[in-house]
Each structure stands twice: as C-alpha cells, then as structure tokens.
Amino acid sequence: MWIDTKADVEENSRTRASRSQRVMSGLLLCTGDMKHVDKYMHDKQFVLQLAVWGLRGVARVILANNPLSGALILAALFWDSPWQGLLGTLGVLASTLTAVIIGQDSAEVEGGLHGFNGMLVSLLMGVFSSAGPWYWWLLLPVCFGSAMCVFLFSGLSSVLDRWDLPVSVFPFNTIIVLYLLCTGPDNPYFPHHPAAPPGMTDHNGTELIAVEPIPTPQDITVTRGILLGVGQIFACGALWPSLLILGAVLLYSPLLAAHALLGSAVGTMAGLSMAVRHESLYSGLSGFNGSLGCMAVGGLFFTFSWRTHLFAIASAFLSAYADIALSNLLGTVGLPACSWAATLTATLMLLLTGSLAAYRIPMAQVMAPEHNLRFPRQWEAGNTADMESTDNDCVRVCSQWF
Q1: Which domain, by its residues, includes 294?
Q2: Is residue 145 part of a domain?
Q3: Where are the transmembrane segments (predicted)?
Q4: Which of 13-17, 29-33, 231-235, 303-307 shows the lowest per-residue confidence on average (mean pLDDT)?
Q5: pLDDT at position 30
Q6: Which residue has the higher pLDDT, 251 or 401?
Q7: What is the average pLDDT across 333-357?
Q8: Are 43 and 187 in the same domain?
C-alpha cells in the first residue's frame, strides 16, 4: 500500500511537471519574433497573411516584431479611443497594401516594415486634427499619407543600406510635418491644432507632484508621466492603455520593456532639469523620445552588456534633450518635433566607431534582445578578446533568466 501510494505521488509529480513544461513552452512560443507564425501562414489566405503583416507593423512602432504584441497594442488604442484605433488600423493597412501593390521586398512586407510608418502618420493626423473625432474627410489624407510612407521608405532604404542603417521613422516624421505645413491651423477641410513648445512662456509653479499616497488613474503625477511616456509613442495619453502597451513590449522582450521604462524616466528627468511645462511631464510627452532612444541601443541594435546599457542611458538623455530643443524650435511655427530626436540620435549612435561599435548587430540579424543573449554571434566588428572577456559574465547571468 505504501509503495503504491509513493508511486502515485511520483506519477502525479511527473504529470504536474510535464504540464508545467507544456505551459511554459506554450508561453515561450508567444514571445520573441514568433518566426513559426510566418511558416504557418505561408499557405494561408491573403487576408489572414495581411492581418499578421499588419500586426507586426503595429508592433514595429515600438521596436517589437511580434503579432501578438501588435494585437495587444491595437486593443489598447481602441480602448483609449475607438477613432484613433480605426485611424491606426487604416494607416497600417493602407501602407502595407501599397507595398504589396508596388512590389516591395516580400520579407520587408511580411516583417511589418512597411506598416509602422503609415500607422504613426494616421495616429498623429488624428491627434492634431481640430475637427474632432469621426471626421470622415480625414480618412483621405490618412490613406494618402500612409501610402506615401512606402515610397519614402523605399527611396531612403537604398541610401541608408550602404551604411547598414535602418530607415526607422524618417518617412513618418517627414510626411506628418509636410501635411501640417500644407494644411495649416485654419484649413477649411483639414484644420489642426498648432503645437506648443515645451518651454513655458509663463513662470512654472514651484510645486511638482511626484507621486500620490493612494494612486488612481486620474492622478496627475510625474510617476504616472513615466508610464505614459511608453504610451505616448502611440500618441496614447491614458494610463491603463499605456500599461497594456508596456505589457505588449514585455511579451516580446522583458529587456526591451525595462529599457522602455528606463528611457521614459530619463526623459522625464531631462525635462525636469530644463524646467519644461509640468503638463509635458505629467502627460508623458517628455519621456517618449528618451524611451525610444534607450530601447534602440539597449539590446535591440547592440548586444546587451554593461557597456551598452550605459550607452543606452546616454542615448536616452541625448534623445530627450534633443527633443526639447527641436520642440522649442519647431513649436515657434506650430509644428511638433514628433520623434525626430530619437530617430536622429539612434542613427548617429549606429554610426559610432571605436570599441562600442564592436557590439553592434547587423541590421539583417536584428532580433529580440534575449535571442542575442542565448545565441551570441561573433560579429566581424566584435571578434576581439576584450569584448569576450568583459561580456561573458553578463551573458551567463542574463541567459539564466531569458
């Protein structure tokens, strides 16, 4: 009897262990780049393939490449504003379909590289429109501007590929500025709100709320602004949708999510040091460029190490200060700085020479940061004994977690 009971206990333990392993394996299939989804969708209907390509394009906005992350982000946008969610969906579909029609590289289309610029253009058109939500005439410039991003992406890629640089969001930043310059605040068909520079014309108050003892979603605090800095990458200024967006990044890469929050905090600190309007701190507008700059360097385009981690913090500071400077400059003519600061900063960082250049990952091999930790490659630029000796300990420790 005792032997039978012991055998039953061991069998139950093995069953629970195998069940846990299956659950963990299933969860791991939902993380990272999910390359198996592309193989599964290879022979499926075009509509289903287009949906996956579009969701990857949605996630690409925040430097992720995961269709489930894209679905969570799209749900967050519809949660915050159904009108903004509709515009974002239309933008990513218009740009992706344009890329298919004009015959762009199939790998780029399937990876969502022709969708994220169109989505950002459509979202910013909706945010700056002074005609209010559900203004259907706005769908015309949304579709046209999203489609134009594909042509700019194709033209810029032929130039930037020579230096192995990403096109990033140069098309979005260019198209949205041209659109706002063409229409103007008083356009009878497509009016928009002029952007205000973050530098305060009136004297800032001396009281600044850092955190509330009992936080609520309506609190106006600096801590809340750090969380909103991640959501502001999608022009989302609500707390819970922003947390869902952060969760989507966490699903793709915990390391990238940590750098997203770190960069937003750094950007907020930069805003505090420059005494920007408190509204910019509370709404997350001071943090989103720092978040993008930190993510780009902190494990995505560079192999993660203690050196590149410090490099990512420096990139976040530079992105945040550049954003303040550009916002003050462009705000004088009513234009937003968008993400010019993070885009230019990340591009300059990728052109860096010296010992840090040894950690750079070629564009064709960029994947989730954890993938680079588990399977470190000997990059041609980084095949040095110094790089191996300084990073082996970090790789071993991080590999235990990812």
Answers
A1: 253-402
A2: yes
A3: 58-79, 134-156, 163-181, 226-249, 256-276, 282-303, 310-333, 339-359
A4: 13-17
A5: 79
A6: 251
A7: 92
A8: yes
> How large is the average pLDDT for residues 197-205?
60
Place of tokens 């993938």: 371
pLDDT at res. 26: 65
CA distance 345 to 293: 7
What per-residue confidence (pLDDT) applies to 9?
Answer: 55
Both tokens of residue 19? 């069940």
Please report, for the domain that includes residue 299, its CATH number: 1.10.3430.10
Structural contact between residues 362 and 340, judged by C-beta atoms closer than 8 angstroms? no
The C-alpha atoms of residue 193 and residue 184 are separated, in whole angstroms, by 9
CA 290 to each of CA 148, 214, 271, 382: distance values in angstroms, whole numbers, following the listed order: 27, 28, 10, 27
Residue type, 173: N
Please, what is the end-to-end C-alpha distance for the chain in angstroms? 43
Place of tokens 């700019």: 152
Helix (H, G, I), strand (E, B) or coil at 192: strand
Compute CA 325 distance to the chain's CA centroid, rounded to the nearest angstrom: 22
Q: How far apart are CA 359 and CA 376, in angstroms?
A: 11
166 and 283 together in one domain: no
Tokens 């052109």 belong to which residue? 351
Residue 307: pLDDT above 60? yes
pLDDT (0 to 100) of residue 12: 60
Amino acid letter for position 206? T
Radius of gyration of the chain (CA): 22
**Domain-embedded: residue 213:** no
Q: Which residue has the higher pLDDT, 388 or 40?
A: 40
Say if 286 falls within a structural domain. yes
Report pLDDT digits (tens) over 74-118: 999 999 999 999 999 999 999 999 999 999 999 999 999 999 999
- 264: Cβ contacts below 8 Å, ≥ 6 apart: 226, 227, 229, 230, 284, 287, 288, 290, 291
Read off the DSSP letter of residue 388. Answer: H
Residue 231 placed within a domain: no
Q: At what angle do helices 67-80 and 46-60 cross, to 10 degrees?
A: 70
Q: How far apart are CA 163 and CA 353, in angstroms?
A: 12
Span 59-73, average pLDDT: 94
Distance CA 188, CA 166 (A): 37
Q: Provide CB contacts within 8 A for 261, sequence distance 6+.
A: 226, 227, 230, 246, 291
